[in-house]
Give the backbone structure.
Amino acid sequence: MEDTFNKIVALCKRRGFVYPGSEIYGGLANTYDYGPRGVELLRNIKNRWWDHFVTRREDMYGLDTNILMNPKVWEASGHTASFSDVVVDCRNCQFRTRADHLIEDYLDKNNPDEIDFGSYQTKRLSEEKVKTLIKTHKVEGYSEEELDEIINALNIPCTICSGNEGNKWTPTRKFNLLFETHIGIVSEEKSLAYLRGEIAQGMFVNFKNVLDTISPKLPFGLAQSGAAFRNEVTMGKFTFRTLQFNLAEFEYFFNPENMKWEELFEKWKEEMWKWTTDILQLKTENLRWRPHTDEERSHYSTRTEDVEYKFPFGFKELYGLAYRTDFDLKNHREKSGVDLRYTDPQTGNKFIPHVIEPTFGMDRTFLAVLFNSYHEDETNGKKRVVISLPTYLAPYKAAVFPLVANKPEITSKARNVFELLKKNVATVWDDRGNIGKRYFAQDEIGTPNCITVDYQTLEDDTVTVRDRDSMKQERVVIEKLPTFIQNKSSTT
Ligand code: GAP
């Protein structure tokens, strides 16, 4: 599995999906840039999400709010106080890491049958918790003191300098994830601001604007998709955890007096599952729901469940679903002094709606889609790598090749076919190397149809269309090609 991970990371670079950030300057840890193929795949995922959850629904309204907000927003939302990870620093090389990740990775690699707490028998950890820890290798929801105790009892070495003698790690401490920045309002005058740590707050602070301007009726959702920033300390795992990432989420507001949050929660679970399995076509055996424990839940949530995907490095969070109650609107009302209540159009009653929040990491979706569709096969002794992306997600729906590059009649005919198709679907031109190599390259970026203009084309105006997955070829009349490709795209 780890091998597949490395292969996909290499393919992403080789084929222009994802590049390490600021590479010519030695990179910047936990940052990545999307290349020409990656940006198309990512945009297709985002567009499909928007189309599915916003455009096609009557009860959803989109927003596009600012990354920079008044810092009071983050105080009211509780992020300045509670949006943190527990970290430790190596006393030897100053390497900083998340305590939970340090322990879980160590347990995964070493699989201990028992843990000798020896002198650390302060008994913060019950026998039952120790047993569960050995079995699950998970420390979600453990207190800082408990994490300290486990790190010391396991004598975990530093992953960078390997130092493990004595007490190598500093005691655990909280590390806030909000990125600070400064806004120069007047020359030399600076004021603290934050890059948004979640995009949800832009929807809460515009709640009144939306009520006042378009008068939506409950229940309804406010949706947006955009960049979020977190000062993550754990590195690695490619784009799974980055400093800047793409989020898409919506706040679904409802009246708790006439709707049971438990039922709504279940309904959104079903919708999220459908998106993941029917639309993205992720294999169900690689997906599961995992409820958060009381201790690990975010400060704003009464109940949270994650959709986890089985990445090559284990089951990890793909999406989250949280019942945020009236936590955010209530706090913003109190702190801003602005009335954020909704008025029931029938009864005239004023109240703060409650909210259910489905949240979707777009970069993790991108990764899951790639892992889900990557495979290798062999035909006639030749190995190939194929990314069997659903057609609507593929960066290009078709590639057009002239059979030979040195016959002007063939290349000019092929250019005509390319121009014709490009008006209708995302199409790419390729005249490098031989046909076999071109197929190979297109399979690796998931192009479902490869179209070759050959000598027969000059006689009967037909081209070969080679299917990515079956590798079958059929001849299609050029005139019918746009409809043929479009029809295929709409069904898969
Ligand atoms: N508004 C709720 C919220 O932000 P979250 O669980 O903290 O919830 C939402 O984050 C989603 O964003 C996660 O389910 C995950 O897919 C993605 N995500 C979170 N942190 C990330 C990071 N550092 N890099 C990439 N994706 C991340």
